[in-house]
Specification:
single chain; 508 residues; Creatine Kinase, Chain A, domain 2; six-stranded antiparallel β-sheet; 17 helices
Length: 508
């Protein structure tokens, strides 16, 4: 497709058979179970600034900082060095694997291809499953379970974040206004499904929602991510040349088990960004986007009515269809992946207008609801009964268990009852092989070939130690496909770090 994109997924962690678990330490130790060698290049946090806002200012502090201060005091009591606590790794497939304080997180490498992204996202599940099994075997009691979901059902949410490269020339207020109607409504086919309601004491608890994340959004746009979560995050960390590019960091989506939902979620959003760049985006102004994302998620009919700012109403399906039709006019026939997105997007909207069960095995919320209904019928469970609802929530959780011996989605997958987009061979290759057409390949190959000389790294730079001197390879320009291809060719052919450095611009 036309732009770089990637996913960051925080996993829920649980240890059976342990009464009092320090989840921060548990997450740290789980990540450390990946280590295959004594050497690990450290992540360079000096290149990150989470307080810089894309609307042209830098905040003095984040609302998140208050929580971080509490965590910091606890970390000091643990007496664990920060580098050990984060256990921050860039691994040979170009991905980032680290402890995001209370959650193990896997960030895919940058991708141009949706199917590459799906394969590398699934590879992340296998990598973390490997870590969980190794941790269970070595922790001296207790079984570690990991869940690719977004809530613990006790009003704590963790994210699946999307990242897209944008041109800096686009005013970010236009990005916010153009994307919000799309993001609010795409949950009708991208939602992961959830039993019950959180953060809303007056809401009816005994319902099934489309989205796991919808309950947790409080503002339209903000640089924060954990406190007063925004529909559009405005953090300005492009990981590219800042005068040319932005990185759109979306935190509003659910973590999907379905490969189809993952690909369509990212692919449709990428096409909407194409519309935005070309100035042909449909115009919608919602009456109250924050209320709408919750109301659509909680609606018990499939009409999904949507109030507009002008006092009229439309529906979530009509909003989605307007984006689809505009995208079809702009990019139909551009490439096979684009055509796949357009066709599947159309199929999804048509199915939802008739009977959502037509998306069984593709749409997560539909597939999960089908399983829960069958379970409730078999066990004579009633949604209105709090004890029965807790039982249903436990099954909701097991849908996202990444252990194929326990996870309900993976059980369906083993029975060929869900749609696959990538093969097992492609997933296995993704454990170690970065996408060949982005700078992730350069990063992964440098670690594979010259890891002992890598001192630190980030998404957009690698710091080598060469004969006592530090040399930094800047990768900001490698978001351009031709530049990335040159760097990737150089790392393939270089017999040594010295030969690599000779052919690339570096700084001390």
């Amino acid at each position: 497709m036309r732009r770089l994109f990637g996913l960051e997924t925080e996993y829920g962690i649980q240890v059976d058979g342990v009464a009092d678990m320090d989840v921060v330490v548990e997450s740290m130790e789980l990540i450390r179970c990946y280590l295959k060698e004594d050497f690990v290049a450290r992540w360079d946090y000096g290149l990150e600034n989470p307080r810089r806002d894309m609307r042209g200012f830098e905040v003095d502090e984040l609302l998140n900082d208050q929580d971080e201060t509490v965590h910091l005091q606890r970390d000091r009591q643990r007496k664990i060095p920060l580098k050990d606590l984060k256990s921050d790794l860039i691994i040979s497939n170009g991905a980032r694997l680290y402890n995001d304080h209370t959650h193990p997180e896997y960030s895919t490498p940058e991708c141009h291809s949706l199917f590459d992204l799906v394969a590398l996202d699934r590879a992340g599940e296998r990598i973390l499953l490997h870590c969980a099994r190794r941790r269970s075997a070595t922790r001296g009691g207790g079984i570690v379970h990991l869940y690719k979901n977004n809530t613990d059902f006790e009003e704590h949410s963790y994210g699946c974040h999307e990242n897209y490269l944008l041109p800096r020339r686009l005013p970010f207020q236009q990005v916010i206004e153009g994307l919000v109607p799309f993001l609010v409504t795409r949950q009708v086919w991208a939602g992961a499904g959830k039993v019950g309601v959180e953060c809303a004491p007056l809401a009816k608890p005994s319902i099934y929602q489309l989205s796991q994340r919808a309950d947790f959004f409080e503002v339209l746009a903000s640089v924060d991510t954990m406190t007063r979560r925004p529909l559009v995050n405005t953090r300005d960390e492009p990981h590219a040349n800042a005068d040319q590019h932005r990185r759109l960091h979306l935190i509003v989506g659910d973590a999907n088990m379905s490969e189809w939902a993952t690909a369509l979620k990212v692919g449709a959003c990428a096409l909407v960004l194409d519309l935005l760049e070309e100035g042909v985006l449909p115009h919608w102004e919602l009456a109250d986007p924050l209320a709408a994302i919750k109301e659509i998620s909680r609606a018990q009919t499939h009409q999904w009515a949507l109030p507009l700012a002008n006092g009229t109403h439309t529906s979530a399906l009509e909003v989605q269809r307007s984006y689809l039709e505009a995208a079809g006019k702009l990019v139909q026939g551009r490439d096979p992946e684009t055509d796949w997105v357009l066709s599947q997007w159309a199929e999804a909207l048509d199915a939802l207008s008739r009977d959502p069960l037509e998306l069984l095995g593709r749409c997560d919320w539909v597939t999960k609801k089908w399983l829960l209904d069958a379970f409730a019928q078999a066990e004579n469970l009633e949604w209105e009964n709090p004890d029965h609802r807790a039982w249903l929530q436990s099954q909701d959780l097991e849908y996202s268990n990444i252990d194929p011996e326990e996870g309900l989605y993976l059980l369906l997958e083993s029975q060929d009852q869900v749609t696959r987009l990538v093969t097992e061979e492609e997933v296995q290759q993704g454990l170690n092989r970065p996408p060949a057409d982005t700078r992730a390949y350069f990063r992964g190959r440098c670690l594979e070939k010259f890891g002992a000389s890598v001192r630190s790294l980030n998404w957009d730079s690698i710091e080598f130690c060469l004969r006592g001197r530090v040399r930094v390879v800047d990768l900001k320009a490698c978001v351009d496909a031709e530049v990335a291809a040159y760097y990737n060719q150089v790392v393939n052919s270089a017999p040594s770090v010295e030969a690599l450095i000779e052919k690339l611009p570096t700084s001390a």
